[in-house]
Structure to design on (227 residues):
């Protein structure tokens, strides 16, 4: 344990690089190409996850599980971020809205996917976490992400409509403001449920359709259209 920590401090880049590479190959092996696209794996390879966790957790940053970020909240496990991003089929230049910014990690992966010509807007309910996310994104060098503190169930009408929306906390139902702020032809991923939660992929066309994508565990979406 002590050795690992000393190593981490002395050889930050070498050590994190090796752990990061190991995580990416685990994600490839464990999930397979169907669930996490090559494009998303490449994006995740570019995001230094150790800059999005608390300093005391840096050595665990490249393990595939959630970690506490304080205030009773967590940074999601890498595989779930990978799955959610793959479902959105993001193209360069898209405008994306994330509800539940937390550490800013998921937003950074989205920023990699949309590229410098695109934009990511993240909303975080807890002011201190919004500040944590902003700081982490700045430290990691992301300029195309804006983090706002507030109730994400209302969306962010001033920048709507969005090509994609992703919700990183579990809702009782899809909040209507988010459906309204999604572009026609757009996609949204959202976990729904309280004790048992299911990940949904929503398509907005002439009608709103949805597909169930498997069981998940997320913290609750709290707000006007949440719990
Ligand atoms: N995507 C984050 C994971 C965040 S966990 C990451 O990559 O680290 C879910 C977050 O949703 C928590 O930080 C919680 O405070 C936030 N949240 C809950 N309800 C919210 C709401 N109505 N609006 C915005 N954020 C909300």
């Amino acid at each position: 344990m002590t050795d690992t920590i000393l190593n981490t401090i002395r050889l930050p880049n070498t050590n994190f690089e090796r752990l990061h590479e190991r995580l990416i190959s685990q994600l490839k092996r464990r999930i397979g190409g169907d669930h996490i696209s090559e494009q998303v794996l490449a994006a995740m390879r570019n995001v230094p996850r150790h800059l999005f966790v608390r300093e005391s957790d840096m050595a665990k940053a490249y393990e595939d599980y959630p970690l506490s970020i304080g205030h009773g909240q967590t940074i999601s496990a890498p595989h779930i971020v990978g799955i959610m991003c793959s479902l959105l089929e993001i193209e360069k230049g898209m405008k994306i809205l994330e509800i539940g910014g937390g550490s800013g990690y998921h937003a950074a992966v989205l920023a990699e996917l949309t590229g410098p010509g695109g934009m990511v807007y993240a909303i975080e309910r807890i002011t201190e976490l919004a500040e944590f996310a902003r700081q982490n994104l700045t430290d990691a060098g992301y300029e195309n992400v804006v983090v706002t503190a507030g109730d994400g169930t209302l969306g962010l009408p001033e920048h709507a409509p969005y090509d994609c929306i992703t919700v990183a906390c579990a809702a009782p139902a899809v909040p209507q403001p988010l459906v309204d702020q999604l572009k026609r032809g757009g996609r949204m991923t959202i976990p729904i449920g309280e004790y048992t939660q299911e990940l949904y992929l929503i398509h907005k066309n002439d009608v709103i359709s949805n597909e169930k994508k498997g069981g998940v565990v997320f913290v609750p979406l709290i707000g006007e259209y949440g719990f």
